[in-house]
Fold this sequence. Notes:
The chain is built from 19 helices and no strands. The chain is mostly helical and 420 residues long. The termini are close together.
Amino acid sequence: MSEHATPNVKPADDPAFQLPASLGSLSIPLIIGGLVLLGAGWGIANSIHARFGMSVYLTAFIYCISIAVGCLFFVMLQHLCRAGWSVVVRRIAENVMLMVIPLAVLFLPIIGSLLFGEGVLYRWDDPNHAVENHLPITIWAEKTRWLDSSWFTVRAALYFGIWSALALFYYRGSTQQDATGDKAITDKLQYWSGPAIMMFCGATAFASFDWVMSLAPMWFSTMFGVYVFAGSVLSAHCIISVAVYLLQKKGAIQDEVTAEHYHDLGKYMFGFVFFWTYIAFSQFLLIWYGNIPEETHWFYERQEGTWGQIALILIFFHWMLPFAGLMSRHIRRNPKLVFAWAIYLLILHFVDIYWMIMPESAAAGGHASTEGAMGIASSVLCVLGMFLFMIGMVLKIAKQNAVIAVHDPRLQESIAFENM
């Protein structure tokens, strides 16, 4: 039985469909404050040593870009499945997915580290790396055919080009429909969703190989792209849940988003917690069982010292606790609890990315560590700064259009949606 009465669809210009002024006014302060925090965190990290500083920056970048591309996948998947339930929350994901464009600008320091750094971030960029580490010259020559600074830059431009083109295509189609009410736009977006997702998957998988996996240039895992993807889509559902809750607290879309929608968002959060765990365990199990030195060293380093403790945190707090906490139907239908779990998982998503990247942050000849309180503080400041900058940009864009797809042909279906 329904727990709510189905409201009538409000006029497209109803104030409930606009970004509340109290949120919109935060856009510029968040952008400026985020950049200040990002600069401060990056500066502190660089004072420790250059590779640590660039590793901290890369961690913050991967965290933010993973949320943006996760939202892009969410939007394309809803069109591919012709989903009705998600229409009232899809515009949030459409705004966030556009962040692949400003984040492309924030990728320039990473490119700069390749062009001018010679191994400051990526060890394969150091011309002496193979000799100093006694690597087989023939194998290293094959590796560096792919891991080349110029070719790396071209590929990065391709990845951002694909993401940006897809994000603009779906955002413009959705907002154009707001203005014209043309139902054919939905058909067009659905028609291209299959090829779009295939392009997206290729770009996302290879970006994870290039930007994260190549930090350990002799290590490889064909599952790594799926592992990064799982965390990205989980974080996308979390950011949507947080945004919906805050919008409703400020008076927007209160009648349109109900416990039924929170229930579905909670189900997807629960499902992708399990999917992330499945991929993480499968990757570990295959490498552990194969016991090939070229493959095992990545996990070996992450089971030692502080990194081993963080691995245990991920097992107990990224899997077991949210798996148990989100299992109940009553929790998933409670907006406050869904919001709280979403915030929690966004924090653990950062811990996961930190664990992926920072064990490779050691200076030449050293062993990676968290670098104490200063190192941890710089990491938190850097990711918080970039995240706040991204949210400020999202709010700036959200002020330009309705926070809901007001003329989507499935809007009434979405408002009337009930879980079985």
